[in-house]
TrEMBL record:
GO terms assigned for molecular function: lipopolysaccharide binding; lipopolysaccharide immune receptor activity; transmembrane signaling receptor activity
Name of the protein in question: Toll-like receptor 4
Cell compartment(s), UniProt: Cell membrane; Cell projection, Ruffle; Early endosome
Spans through the membrane: 643-661
Gene encoding the protein: TLR4
Entry coiled-coil feature ranges: none
Species assigned in the record: Catharus ustulatus
UniProt topology in membrane: Single-pass type I membrane protein
Domain of life, source organism: Eukaryota
Family statement drawn from the similarity comment of this UniProt entry: Belongs to the Toll-like receptor family.
Pfam families referenced in this protein's UniProt entry, alphabetically: LRR_5, LRR_8, TIR
UniProt key word Transport: no
Length: 842
């Protein structure tokens, strides 16, 4: 049984092939690397390997080998991936990096060696890294900088030595050559003292923007002058000092020039300390622009002196302090920007803050206990920005009385508060450009035109403010407005009715989530400059072309999450050419084939349409949840061809039936004819001729034809329908069986009546076709007088010229009759079978 044996053998061969030959499939299944971006980014983590995995091509730019068990790197370890730009070797159990390990990586810009306890680092370990910008040596068991062989990495911009055991900040001389260095981090090391000369390497050269991070160390002493003449962009000293040593240490900062100094603690550290009195006065010797103090619980005791040395500081940020009042303000403070974030204020300290005459920007945010705003700002002639967002403020008389003589105020942020009552009085702040009141319950807007005097305002955000727009003049006066955000509110009767009539400079309008059910025709008439309209998440059923027609500058239209069933052709036509983003997702689309043109349009405009994965059919139910862009358009095409072909078939059937109805007799005749063909040979020639004639000519037939022929010598036997047809047999059967099949000849008596009678024509047609089929019977045409010759020619056609046929004309004259009879009997005699009696008679 060869067939049964063949199958297992074949299978076995295939299995053997799979097992032994390294087929591409097998390679694919075993590939340990994830190709994040084709040919360039590979992630091969957690492998127990040595060397670069085989699957990584030489085009790779980014290679992540973290969590692999590499143990040690030998020379030219990465020769197979010379294009690398980023190499991540975090937690690779590396203890040894031999000389020239990275020799081939001339393009490498980032090298991450986090969490490898490096014990043997060759002197030439980092040779070849001529483009290195970022070196991360976090958690690598480093104890000093001097043994770190990085002196030749002149291109370095970031060096992160965090979470090591470095005890001294003595920077080796080679730092003088790292002129690109921007970030030097010693976060969480074991530095205990900083001496003069430690940072000398930074003194040389023309570096300006270096950020030095010394947070989370245990500094006990800073020798005065250690930082003198060192220009730094930022110095971070959070949780950097041992308890009670802060003040002394800060004194050591004398002479430091820094753009930003960050002091304070980290929340999660236990080193929180009580600030000694006047601790910050030490900072008077530091030249800085910005002072940041974070998360220092002890600062409460020192509040009165907090600003003592802020004389020349332009920016003060106080973050997460337990500060309940503004400390004493020095004379002529130069602070231009003041921020108090997560402090403990209960009321807006406007009076005291008004002493900062230079103040430009004021931010008091995220104070969870800040509820009251009773005091007034007074005479802050430079004040431009006031941000009181994310507090719990509840107040009325907004906003003019709160800002006396603050003529430059342009930016007011009162968002995310509790409740604000707007009076409509903005006279003191009529130069406002930005007003943000979002997510704060508002009393006033919607009922009367509160914004009337804000003629210069360009940005207004009143979204989610429980505003109900009842007055058509709610936005009156906002003649310069560019941006109006009022999502999450409502409109009277849930409809837009000419609410934006004078906002002709509006560029962005957000009226999403406003429960809208209807948009009046003239609503958008003034908005010819509008670029973005967000009307999503409403209950709109239609996108009426007339309403949106005026928006000819529109670039972004968000009509998602409404109840639209289709975007009709007329609506699609008015969409301006400038439109680059259209979102109609999450509507209730009707995917019937009636809207085939819409479905096609969706398919063709995928670049324009956003969130396509959320454009789903809603009806009809058999396509519910089918994605619109992937809707099978051909399903509609097929049914149209179906419809077309069934129409054609139906038409054919109808035509066929009509033909049958019309030619019923002919068909019937043909059937009988065919059966007749079989029998014709068996039938004798009972008659000499079958006479077809019009019933109106019966008298002529009887008198002029039957009597002379049947009574003459020799006698001829004629078949006459009125005499010889069998009763009870269908007339057509009679015509054929008794007439044609039993006669040798056909005599057609052609008169005007004959030509007009359908029956006669029919019989004549049958006679003609019969003649063709049988090939023997001749037709004798007897044309009576007074027949229209033209009609005659048309009806008889060619038949009269056929040789087998006889064409006789009947004239009622003796001489003509004589010729007529001679011709007729001559024809009838041809092929006549004489029986005995007839012969005797002759
Ligand atoms: C990846 O590399 C292969 C072979 O070098 C090449 O055929 C293919 O086009 C590349 N793919 C991309 C996305 O560059
Ligand atoms: C890693 O591979 C080595 C042999 O190459 C083997 O001795 C070791 O057990 C493997 N380790 C793990 C975790 O699989
Ligand atoms: C990468 O490898 C291909 C062959 O696999 C070789 O033709 C090409 O030169 C190599 N490119 C580099 C930069 O080495
Ligand atoms: C750190 O390095 C020292 C030698 O410099 C070594 O004794 C110690 O075990 C290393 N620590 C770790 C965690 O490997
Ligand atoms: C700085 O670089 C120059 C030229 O590369 C070199 O001659 C000099 O020794 C380097 N200085 C230090 C302190 O490494
Ligand atoms: C320092 O940084 C600031 C912003 O980070 C930048 O504008 C300035 O140009 C930098 N200065 C130098 C000398 O690189
Ligand atoms: C801070 O300044 C005020 C006057 O502005 C002065 O009375 C006070 O002594 C100063 N505090 C310290 C610690 O210098
Ligand atoms: C403020 O700067 C001026 C010169 O710009 C200087 O004379 C004065 O000592 C500085 N004051 C403080 C407190 O740093
Ligand atoms: C107002 O403050 C909120 C919260 O801090 C912020 O999200 C919003 O962008 C601010 N508004 C403006 C106009 O800056
Ligand atoms: C409409 O705005 C124009 C300026 O854009 C202004 O002149 C006109 O007074 C405004 N009309 C109303 C009724 O506010
Ligand atoms: C329209 O507003 C909704 C929220 O109401 C937001 O999710 C959506 O991103 C906005 N659309 C655009 C285009 O910004
Ligand atoms: C369509 O999807 C929604 C949400 O996923 C689901 O509730 C609903 O039953 C789905 N309808 C059909 C017909 O699958």
């Amino acid at each position: 049984m060869p067939r049964r044996g063949a199958l297992p053998v074949g299978t076995l061969l295939v299995l053997l092939q799979l097992a032994l030959v390294p087929s591409p499939l097998a390679g694919c299944l075993l590939d340990p690397c994830l190709e994040v971006t084709p040919n360039t980014t590979f992630r091969c983590t957690g492998l127990n390997i040595s060397g670069v995995p085989d699957g990584v091509p030489n085009t790779t730019l980014n290679l992540d080998l973290s969590f692999s068990n590499l143990k040690s790197l030998g020379s030219n370890y990465f020769a197979s991936v010379p294009e690398l730009e980023l190499l991540d070797l975090s937690r690779c159990h590396l203890h040894t990096i031999e000389d020239d390990s990275f020799m081939d990586l001339h393009r490498l810009s980032t090298l991450i060696l986090t969490a490898n306890s490096l014990q043997h680092l060759g002197k030439r370990a980092f040779y070849g890294l001529t483009s290195l910008k970022k070196l991360v040596l976090v958690e690598t068991n480093r104890t000093s900088l001097s043994e770190l062989p990085i002196g030749h990495l002149h291109t370095l911009q970031e060096l992160n030595l965090g979470h090591n055991s470095i005890t001294s900040l003595k920077l080796p001389g080679y730092f003088a050559n790292m002129t690109s260095l921007r970030l030097l981090s010693f976060i969480s090391n074991k530095i205990t003292s900083i001496s003069r000369g430690d940072l000398d390497a930074l003194r040389e050269g023309n570096r300006l923007n270096l950020t030095l991070v010394l947070s989370l160390n245990n500094i006990k002493s800073i020798e005065p002058g250690a930082f003198a003449g060192i220009p730094l962009a930022e110095l971070a000293l959070r949780s950097a000092f041992e308890n009670f040593m802060m003040q002394t240490c800060l004194r050591g900062l004398a002479g430091l020039q820094v753009s930003r100094l960050i002091l304070g603690e980290f929340h999660d550290k236990e080193t929180l300390q009580d600030f000694e009195r006047g601790i910050l006065s030490a900072l008077c010797q530091v030249q800085m622009d910005e002072f940041v103090l974070m998360c220092s619980s002890g600062v409460e005791d020192d509040t009165e002196n907090l600003f003592n040395c802020t004389g020349n500081i332009s920016t003060v940020r106080l973050v997460d302090l337990g500060l309940s009042e503004i400390p004493e303000v020095p004379v002529w403070p130069k602070v231009k920007q003041l921020e108090c974030k997560k402090c403990d204020f209960e009321a807006v300290p406007a009076e005291k803050l008004s002493l900062f005459k230079e103040l430009r920007v004021l931010r008091i945010t995220q104070n969870s206990g800040l509820t009251s705003f009773e005091q007034e700002f007074e005479g802050l002639s430079n004040l431009e920005v006031v941000d009181l967002s994310e507090n719990r403020l509840t107040f009325s008389k907004c906003c003019s009385p709160k800002f006396q003589n603050c003529p430059k105020l342009k930016h007011l942020n009162l968002s995310f508060n509790s409740e604000i009552r707007l009076t409509g009085d903005f006279t003191n702040v009529k130069n406002l450009l930005y007003l943000d009141l979002q997510h704060t319950t508002l009393v006033g807007p919607g009922s009367y035109p509160v914004f009337l005097s804000l003629q210069r305002l360009i940005y207004l955000d009143i979204s989610h403010t429980k505003t109900e727009v009842k007055s058509q003049c709610t936005f009156c006066g906002l003649n310069s407005l560019r941006v109006l955000k009022m999502a999450g509110n409502s409109f009277g009767d849930n409809k837009l009715a000419n609410n934006f009539k004078n906002l002709s400079h509006l560029h962005i309008l957000d009226i999403s989530s406003c429960k809208l059910e209807h948009v009046d025709q003239s609503t958008f008439d003034a908005l010819s400059e509008l670029k973005e309209l967000n009307i999503s998440n409403n209950k709109l059923l239609t996108f009426s072309p007339a309403v949106y027609q005026p928006l000819q500058a529109l670039r972004v239209l968000d009509f998602s999450r409404n109840q639209l069933t289709v975007l009709l052709g007329s609506a699609r036509e008015i969409l301006p050419d400038s439109l680059v983003l259209l979102d109609i997702s999450q509507n209730l689309f009707d995917c019937s084939c009636v809207y085939l043109d819409f479905l096609k349009w969706v398919r063709e405009n995928q670049e324009l349409l956003q969130n396509q994965e959320l454009m789903l059919c809603h009806t009809p139910s058999y396509v519910a949840n089918v994605s619109l862009p992937s809707f099978d358009l051909s399903s509609c095409h097929i049914s149209t061809t179906k419809v077309a072909s069934s129409v054609v078939v139906l038409f054919c059937v109808v035509v066929f039936l009509l033909l049958i109805y019309k030619y019923y007799f002919q068909l019937y005749y043909s059937l009988v004819l065919l059966s007749g063909c079989k029998h014709s040979a068996e039938r004798g020639d009972t008659y000499d001729a079958f006479v077809i004639h019009s019933s109106k000519d019966q008298e002529w037939v009887t008198k002029e034809l039957v009597e002379p022929l049947e009574g003459g010598a020799p006698p001829f036997q004629l078949c006459l329908y009125y005499r010889d047809f069998l009763p009870g047999v269908p007339i057509v059967t009679n015509i054929i069986q008794e007439g044609f099949l039993s006669s040798r000849n056909v005599i057609a008596v052609i008169s005007t009546d004959f030509l007009e009678s359908k029956w006669c024509s029919f019989e004549f047609d049958i006679a003609q076709s019969w003649q063709l089929v049988e090939g023997k019977t001749g037709i004798i045409m007897i044309v009576l007088e007074d027949v229209d010759k033209a009609l005659l020619r048309q009806r008889l056609g060619l038949s009269r010229y056929l040789r087998r046929n006889t064409y006789l004309e009947w004239k009622d004259k003796e001489i003509n009759k004589h010729i007529f009879w001679r011709q007729l009997t001559g024809v009838l005699l041809k092929g006549k079978n004489w029986n005995h009696e007839e012969v005797k008679l002759m």
